[in-house]
Amino acid sequence: MEKKIVEIFDISYEGAGVGKLDGQIVFVPKTLPKEQLEISVVKRNSNFLIGRLEKILKGSEIRIKPFCPYFDVCGGCDFQHCDYLQEIQIKKQILAKELGKAEFNGEIETVLSDKRKNYRNKIKLEVKDGEIGYFRQKSHDFFKIEQCPVASEAINEILPVVKRFIDLNNFKALKNVYIKQVDKRLGVCFLFEKNGKKSLNNIKKIELFGENSVYFAYGDVLESNKTDVFCVFGSAKLHQILKGLDLEVDVSSFNQINDETAEKLYECIVDNTANKRVVNAYSGQGFLTFLISQKAKFVYGIEFQVSAHESAEKLKNLSDDFKFENICGKVEECLDVVLLRDAIDIIVLDPAREGCQKSVLNSILNSKIEQVIYVSCNFATLVRDLKILKENYKIERVLMFDMFPCTANMETVVLLSNKCN
Ligand SMILES: C[S@@+](CC[C@H](N)C(=O)[O-])C[C@H]1O[C@@H](n2cnc3c(N)ncnc32)[C@H](O)[C@@H]1O
After folding, report:
1. Range of the domain at 271
2. What's this model's pTM, rounded to 2 decimal places?
């Protein structure tokens, strides 16, 4: 393949270096501004090219040695080759550029991650021909792994066991293995195709997993009402100790993947909802609802995944005097009912990557809610939704929580206040 010389002048919102080649924009993953590179073009689209780094001719002074042996090929991390504080600066610039589209040009506060390595409490492995691994960047090309240095130590220690277990059982229709660490225990969930049900009686050497729990699931993705999950070994529920409380965790429900950063994020939301009547929309397993309720006047949690709602209901056992109600349903169907019943001061929105439904935003615009706290892991949908909320709400503060170090992803918290009140 023909080699070309390129100079990088920017970073794209997906974390790739941006250069120009024969007048066309070229994205080169895992490169940095001011670098001079030898690249080969691996993909040509109508208005941009994708390049592959072949040789660094002049490296950036912020370039460092990645700690993962698979960094060059893996689709998981984008910034291991970059000094951590510079990674934060780059992500802040990416966010600032995106928020500019919603006419926000103010300061972005940053909250760093305590760890850059071993921070992930959850990974999703691909399975191919009995091997475990990940996909290469922007593709479904599988490569096998023996470790994932951004995942917790306990997750890395179980990887050889997972591989041995797959070898011994020669599973067909196995698509993914999810490994979730909750406190000191692991939940290892083998996800099979929906119609790939294997007899649960005939599993070899399951005791390899020791004190951990093993689940078989059948469906497209783990975190869905449509996926059937069976505990085949160990305790059915995992337990998270959060601020001295023993919380039940369902392996198939959403949890924030960086425990330390999640704690800081929750603290920020709790402090900003004290003494108020609150809706916590897209509330997952209810930990945040519970924490908010400790300082707020009252909280309604709204979550549509049944298993997550059931975990949230168990939180009522932690106190006789709880000040929250968990509603199981879609936010777009339940929010108006809550707003008719109660005078809500603040709504917390923490939707999945798809963002909020338009009807949810319209309900907020038609309400007297004083403040909105929007928590987002996808700034594209965040900006889309902020443009709508802007009609009645003004952005007061923006915080970037580094939930996903070494990647171009970030958790953004936007605090908005009602312009009409
Ligand atoms: C990003 S998670 C946030 C969970 C929670 N705030 C936390 O910190 O653990 C989004 C949650 O919204 C739920 N969800 C997605 N779409 C929903 C909808 N339309 N109505 C209600 N819940 C929804 C998902 O099941 C998931 O639990």
Report:
1. 94-115+258-418
2. 0.94
